[in-house]
């Protein structure tokens, strides 16, 4: 797919972030990233897909290139506002401390990076209080900090934490 | 409260709805269809009533076991977990990863970039070129992946969620006049799958909301 991420693990290479995460969940099951109950699992997957299929692909680098430089900001903001409108509504019925109930799940792993994208494109988050609250709670957790774009091997010096 | 049949909110031509229809047929799950016309009345998916049911204002949505699930792959995985036979995902985790990867290449990497709402934004004079470019790019990658995963079907010799994603996407490609000659593996698998009954009964040409002129 000529895309990141790709994970080389256990003798295979897997592309597509959610396929990778589900593989990790099935082979390294603790701590859980998906709830035990099938209905809650469906909610986690639905929220993850809203982000991973419904929002991010429409504002990724290759699409923005095709939209043209003068249209990029407007396009990206429109895509994210539209997606966050729907997401905010969904989360109001599924969220506890996190996206689905009170345990961190794959949905939360999708939320934080998408909110970071929204901030980068100057999307006003005021209309999305549930998204904002959950994002803030998650960013306080260590796994979300060590993995942050500002702390990676390839983070440019001027953006490094 | 008596549990009724599951209800699928579907548009005959929606490739995402077709994926779920195939899953329901494969698992012999009897259901009711509530057609949502994506074009009529400015798009019935934008009605307040439907928005309350599915905030993404998209099809498919499945009302089942007291909940409503949106997003075709989330629906299919729920069906797999609650009605596990026949399987739609292999037992082996590495093969499951391949099935999910191929499904996501289509469901995240190709289809969203050529769906109705994006095409509207691209503008009518650009739509064909845009859609073809998106699909060619995606099929280039998919063809390469399938060469190492495919047997009779996308992953080995059992029908999986990946196959449910493939057939509707090929139908979209044909609708947008994408030449499939560069993709022999995709074409072969698509042909094999279309011969199976679940792929036929769920076909856009055989739905309750199929317009008369397109009906099989």
TrEMBL record, chain B:
The keyword Cytoplasm applies. One of its GO terms (biological process) is glutathione metabolic process. Keywords: Cytoplasm, Isomerase, Phenylalanine catabolism, Transferase, Tyrosine catabolism. It catalyses: RX + glutathione = an S-substituted glutathione + a halide anion + H(+); 4-maleylacetoacetate = 4-fumarylacetoacetate. It is found in: Cytoplasm. It holds the Pfam family GST_C_3. PROSITE patterns: GLUTAREDOXIN_2, GST_CTER, GST_NTER. Residues 92-212 form the GST C-terminal domain. Its EC number is 2.5.1.18, 5.2.1.2. One of its GO terms (molecular function) is maleylacetoacetate isomerase activity. The keyword Zinc does not apply. GO terms for cellular component: mitochondrion. CDD domains: GST_C_Zeta, GST_N_Zeta. Belongs to the GST superfamily. Zeta family. NCBIfam families: maiA. This is Maleylacetoacetate isomerase. It comes from Callorhinus ursinus.
């Amino acid at each position: 797919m000529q895309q990141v991420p790709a994970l080389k693990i256990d003798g295979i290479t897997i592309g597509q972030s959610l396929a990778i995460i589900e593989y990790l969940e099935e082979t390294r099951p603790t701590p859980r990233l998906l709830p035990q109950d099938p209905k809650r699992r469906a909610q986690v997957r639905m929220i993850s897909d809203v982000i991973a299929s419904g929002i991010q692909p429409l504002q990724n680098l290759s699409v923005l290139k095709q939209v043209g430089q003068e249209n990029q900001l407007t396009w990206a903001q429109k895509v994210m506002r539209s997606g966050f409108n729907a997401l905010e509504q969904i989360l109001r019925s599924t969220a506890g401390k996190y996206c689905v109930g009170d345990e961190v799940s794959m949905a939360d792993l999708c939320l934080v990076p998408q909110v970071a994208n929204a901030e980068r494109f100057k999307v006003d988050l005021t209309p999305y209080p549930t998204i904002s609250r959950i994002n803030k709670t998650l960013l306080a957790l260590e796994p979300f900090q060590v993995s942050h774009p500002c702390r990676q091997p390839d983070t440019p010096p001027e953006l490094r934490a | 409260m008596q549990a009724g049949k599951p209800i699928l909110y579907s548009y005959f031509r929606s490739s995402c709805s077709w994926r779920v229809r195939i899953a329901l047929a494969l698992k012999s799950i009897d259901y009711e269809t509530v057609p949502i016309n994506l074009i009529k009345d400015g798009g019935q998916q934008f009605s307040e009533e439907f928005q309350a049911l599915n905030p993404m204002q998209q099809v498919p949505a499945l009302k089942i076991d007291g909940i409503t699930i949106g997003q075709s792959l989330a629906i299919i995985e729920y069906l797999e977990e609650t009605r596990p036979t026949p399987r739609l995902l292999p037992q082996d985790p590495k093969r499951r990863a391949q099935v999910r990867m191929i499904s996501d290449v289509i469901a995240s990497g190709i289809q969203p970039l050529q769906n109705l709402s994006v095409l509207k934004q691209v503008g009518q004079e650009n739509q064909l070129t845009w859609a073809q470019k998106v699909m060619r790019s995606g099929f280039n990658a998919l063809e390469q992946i399938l060469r190492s995963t495919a047997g009779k079907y996308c992953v080995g010799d059992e029908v999986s969620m990946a196959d449910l994603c493939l057939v509707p996407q090929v139908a979209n490609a044909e609708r947008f006049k994408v030449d499939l000659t560069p993709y022999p593996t995709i074409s072969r698998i698509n042909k094999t799958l279309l011969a199976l009954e679940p792929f036929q009964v769920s076909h856009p040409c055989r739905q309750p909301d199929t317009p008369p002129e397109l009906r099989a």
